[in-house]
Design a protein that fits this description.
Layout lengths: L1 H29 L25 E3 L5 E3 L9 E8 L2 E8 L6 E2 L9 E2 L4 E2 L5 E8 L2 E8 L6 E5 L9 H4 L1
Antiparallel strand pairs: 1-2, 3-4, 4-5, 6-8, 7-8, 8-9, 9-10
Length: 166
């Protein structure tokens, strides 16, 4: 009888421990995940989330695309006027409004050549300049400020194309 009682106690203890174990597993399964979790930043060797920077957009289904931005600078027209002392650079909007000369002050004897270009972002102008037999390439902001010589090769620079620069 003693053996039956000891066996029953052992089986009861085992059944209770199994019941406690199952209940603890169910509580873990029912537990809600924390809303504070953030994916780590993705790298070349680690999976993770990405940070969406400027100019990008994520749709509701997770598709990453480029934001379309209307940039008024891209609606500019740059042209030159031939005058006796060289060329003048002029700028206007695509509809012809705000037509104005760009005040570029070069050293004496330097002349702007044809073929001026706006940089792709519309913030700067790239243009050729001649002096005697030498040719240079300059840049400036669209308002004429920050005049900078970027190519200074002397007589051989006449073979450069502004398309090669920008």
């Amino acid at each position: 009888m003693k053996k039956i009682f000891m066996g029953s106690a052992a089986l009861t203890t085992f059944a209770i421990s199994m019941l406690v174990f199952q209940m603890s597993c169910k509580e873990d399964a029912i537990a809600q995940p924390s809303s504070d979790y953030t994916l780590p930043t993705a790298t070349t060797s680690t999976l993770g989330g990405i940070i969406v920077g400027d100019g990008l957009d994520i749709s509701g289904d997770g598709t990453l695309s480029i934001k379309s931005k209307k940039n008024e600078r891209l609606n500019l027209v740059l042209y030159s006027k031939d005058i006796a002392s060289g060329n003048e650079l002029w700028l206007c909007n695509i509809d012809g409004s705000d037509n104005h000369k760009i005040p570029i002050f070069l050293p004496e004897g330097y002349k702007i050549t044809n073929g001026a270009r706006l940089t792709p972002d519309g913030a700067k102008i790239v243009f050729g300049v001649t002096s005697s037999s030498d040719m240079y390439i300059y840049t400036c902001d669209v308002n004429g400020s920050n005049l900078t010589k970027i190519v200074d090769d002397g007589p051989t620079s006449q073979y450069y194309s502004l398309e090669d620069v920008y």
